Amino acid sequence: MRGRAWDRGWVGRGIGRQARAGWLAEGSAALSDLVLPVRCGGCEAPGSPWCQQCQAVLAAAPAPQRWEPTPAPPGLPPVWTVLPYAGPVRSALVNWKDNGRRDLAAALAPVLAEVLLSGLLSCDQRPPTHVTPAASASGTTLVVPAPSGRANTRRRGDHPLAGLSRAALRQIPPRSRPSLVPALRLARTVADQAGLDSGNRALNLAGAMTVTAGHARRIPGMTCLLVDDVITTGATIAEGARALRVAGAGHVVAVTLAATQRHAHPPLSFPREPG
Questions:
Q1: How many CA atoms lie within 13 A of 115 on its CB side?
Q2: Of 73, 94, 186, 261, which is the most buried if we count CB atoms within 10 A?
Q3: Does residue 30 carry a pLDDT above 60?
Q4: How does pLDDT run across 92-101, given as a tens digit for each residue?
Q5: Residues with Cβ < 8 Å from 190, sequence gap 6 or more?
Q6: Strand ranges in 87-222 using DSSP code E only, listed in sequence order
Q7: What's the pTM value of the predicted model, to 2 decimals?
């Protein structure tokens, strides 16, 4: 009973199990730092969580650019990205997302902020039509992170993409800053996308996403910036865009930190890797 009362008390303060799990994960990471030597999240060099050489890779990145995989899935919105998914960039994203290295958000958030700004500038600046009063109260553009499955969220203890999106938005001037709305969720279980080709990825995700009931009234007529960490075949972004359009989004643009170097044109420029 004491455990339940404690739990209700925290929930009453607006802090749920998911947030507490995230704190526990961060605490475990901090404890491990006391036992294990700190290593760079990009190259594993000891002594720093993000070394100067890996920072130089991010600093040498080209300006964000439009990207489209070949073949592009039907319904893929315009996609803006900046880094090839290779070398220290790939290691950093894997460590940040799946290995509990949330501290790497400090290095990744400024890059994502640049891509978000490019996506914002590419959007039609004219006020959209048929925007609901609930939507117009917070502006005409929303940032919508791609959803995570329940199993991944439980395993990670949080939604890393939403956290990184918040950190990136804090670097955009308040007057230009769109609202973050975690409007998408997975409506059914999907298989792990790793190892699937473009056709099977599309089939795996077809009809899998929907807009949550709590956010449905905010979407009609809005411009939505759909955020993901990496674009490979584009299946995840195409499905997220479909769900947002079904909910009434007026325009969808996607932004990612990185793109898998596949058969696409034009290729992304690879910054010189450390060493």
A1: 35
A2: 73
A3: no
A4: 999 999 899 9
A5: 149, 204, 205, 208
A6: 141-145, 179-180, 184-186, 209-211
A7: 0.76
